[in-house]
Amino acid sequence: MSVTDYRVLGRTGLKVSPLCLGAMMFGGWGEPDFDASARIIDRALDSGINFIDTADVYAAGQSEEYVGRALAKSGKRDQVVLATKCHGVMGEGPNERGNSRRWIFQAVENSLRRLGTDWIDLYQIHRPDPDTDIDETLGALTDLVRQGKVRYIGSSTFPAHQVVEAQWAAERRSRERFVCEQPPYSLLVRGIEAGLLPVTEKYGMGAIVWSPLAGGWLTGRFRKGRELPRTRRAQRLPQRYDMALESNQRKLDAVEQFALLAEEAGLTLIQLALAFTLRHRAVTSAIIGPRTMEHLEGQLGADEVRLSDDVLDRIDEIVPPGVTVNPADAGWVPPELAEASLRRRP
Predict the structure, then answer these.
(1) Which of 123, 132, 152, 274 is the least crowded, having the fewest Cβ atoms under 10 Å away?
(2) Which of the pair, 229 or 56, is modelled with greater confidence?
(3) Which residues contact residue 147 at a Cβ distance below 8 angstroms, ignoring those fewer than 6 apart?
(4) From start to end of the chain, where are the E strands?
(5) Is the dihedral of CA 69, 75, 77, 80 positive or negative?
(6) Residue 236: enclosing H or E segment and its boundaries?
(7) Looking at residue 4, what is its pLDDT?
(8) How many other C-beta atoms can be found within 10 angstroms of the C-beta atom of residue 148?
(9) 3-state DSSP call for residue 292?
(10) Cβ pair 122, 81 in contact under 8 A
């Protein structure tokens, strides 16, 4: 990968690789062996990837530990843009989660320890917290930046209106602002094209998209006439994989058409899927989450594929712009949709 291949994260001047190595599968959620995980990390860095994304909640901190140990072993910490997140449940106590100042201060110390580093390049809030004022969150994050423990801050899976609210709160209260957003985006999950990506462009934010392979749907394993794979993710998130649901049948129909389109274009389905996300002008990086070396090798180089306008037009015919085939794939359900009491006058 040449120097010109790297992309600027929003308006920060920080240059990151178009493919970001997601570390969710390192540890108990995927590859439990540290040495195997370290080899994948080393191979990714050797290929030119300089961006690694993890989170405290992944395998209860084990992912962070593996990433930290691997970087210490290779001596490449200074060359890596290291990102992690907080928000998820990390203990039984009511304050060991969320976006409060109390928890953020504790969570960042825990992440620094597990990662074996003195600073985190990009510290992200993993999900919105309806119980916490965004100014409380931004105030805590601003203090961490001023202390030198965090370089930049970002959000993950925030709806467009809350991204705007955070930008306005930062301006009004002289807080550090979110420099990027991390939303779900793929051939099957295009809802962010309607509102979120235009918002990130307007505010000069980077977009680091997660699940560009749609949770495995775009790897080639899900095809008509084949026995569908039974994965841990399918067990944890049945609404995204249960083939008794019409929305998932529609996904399978779309995948079949995408597979044929990729074959016509001389590409693998994985290359088509990753190249599609990276072609959107608002997207900075796409997060790949390999569990094995084979997975990684099948995804490396996809950032060098440039899809023609004809292929992009065909993609739009299969899944129109702004459409998420199965709404369950959107990544986060607003409490107003999940709780009936928030929609009904008492």
Answers:
(1) 132
(2) 56
(3) none
(4) 7-8, 15-16, 19-22, 51-53, 81-86, 120-125, 150-156, 178-182, 206-209, 285-288
(5) negative
(6) helix 232-236
(7) 61
(8) 9
(9) coil
(10) yes
Q: How many other C-beta atoms can be found within 10 angstroms of the C-beta atom of residue 45? A: 20
Note the pTM of the prediction, 2 decimals: 0.95
Hey, which residues does 210 pair with through a beta bridge? 184
Question: Could you report the per-residue pLDDT of 84-110, keeping only the tens digit for each?
Answer: 999 999 999 999 999 999 999 999 999
Q: How many CB atoms lie within 10 A of CB 267?
A: 18
pLDDT interval class at 2 (50, 70, 90): low
Q: How far does the chain reach from its first CA to its final CA, in angstroms?
A: 59
The label of the residue with tokens 């993993």 reads 126
**Cβ count near 343 (within 10 Å):** 10
| Phi, psi (deg, nearest 5) at residue 261 | -65, -45
Tokens found for residue 318: 């299969």
Tokens for 326? Answer: 């199965």
Please identify every residue annotated as catalytic.
Answer: 58
Query: Residue 224: is it exposed, middle or buried by C-beta count within 10 angstroms (0-12/13-18/19+)?
Result: exposed
Nearby residues of 79 by Cβ (< 8 Å), 6 or more positions away: 45, 50
Q: How far, in Å, CA of 203 to CA of 31, rounded?
A: 38
For the chain, the domains span 3-219+270-305
Burial of 75 per CB tally in 10 Å (0-12, 13-18, 19+) = exposed
Question: Which CATH topology does 3-219+270-305 take?
Answer: TIM Barrel (3.20.20)
CB of 50 closer than 8 Å to CB of 79? yes
pLDDT tens digits for range 5-62:
999 999 999 999 999 999 999 999 999 999 999 999 999 999 999 999 999 999 999 9
Q: Using DSSP bridges, classify how beta strands 206-209 and 178-182 pair: parallel, antiparallel or unpaired.
A: parallel
